[in-house]
Amino acid sequence: MRLFNRDRITLMAGGGAAAVITIAALLVSTASAAPVGQAAPAFKEVNTAGQTVQLSDFAGKTVVLEWTNNGCPFVQKHYNSGNMQKTQEAATKEGVVWISVISSKPGSQGYVQAAGADKLTKDRSAHPTMVLLDPDGSMGHAYGAKTTPHMFIITPDQKIAYNGAIDSIKSSNQADIPKATNYVLAGLTALKAGKQPDPALTVPYGCDVKY
Q: Which of these, 175, 153, 164, lies nearest to 78 by C-alpha position?
């Protein structure tokens, strides 16, 4: 399993020399498909109820997109601890539309069909507004989703307000959750107060999306 922690990645160049990809470069990579402040990429996908859903359906509402993969230990960290459910519940109680997106291709880790996705939602007592199935990866590629989890906040006028990690501690250890800043809740709180999320762009961490 390939795991991502993008704060610092060292690549071995020719002759054994090391080339360090900086945080700044990784942030540029993260933002390339869905830059903060720009229009959110349009999408049209099918949810687990068999309904076709598109971004324009949610004009006038704040939307959170959560890329997920139930086999990923970083996703398991946030679901097994109840952190993701609490974050979902807090958001949806404020009228936020929370969309979980599964972009795992058929046969790969995390791939499920509609019934399997609904069972996961029930078994984990999760609180998304809906789950979208993206087995061809079109939505994931449109947003540049790199990891599970990878989080986006979209404003009521359908612009990207936040793009990045769910929180500030890049680990799969549940014990780190209470010590971390939940960037999604912080971003939603800022938007409710008429402010911009700060930070608005962070480097996501987790397992690579299984395109």
A: 175
Tell me the domains of the chain and their CATH numbers.
3-208 (3.40.30.10)
> In angstroms, how far is the first alpha carbon of the chain from the final one?
13
pLDDT digits 0-9 by tens, 193-207:
999 999 999 999 999
* Nearest alpha carbon to residue 75 among 207, 209, 211: 207
Sequence-separated (6 or more) residues with CB below 8 Å from residue 16:
none
Under 8 Å between Cβ of 156 and 60 = yes
The predicted-structure confidence for 27-66, as pLDDT tens digits, reads as follows 556 657 799 999 999 999 999 999 999 999 999 999 999 9
What's the CA gap between 104 and 207, in Å, rounded? Answer: 11
**Taking Cα atoms as reference points, which of 109, 108, 114 lies closest to residue 100?**
114
Peptide bond into 197 cis (omega under 30): no
By percentage, how much of the chain surpasses pLDDT 90? 84
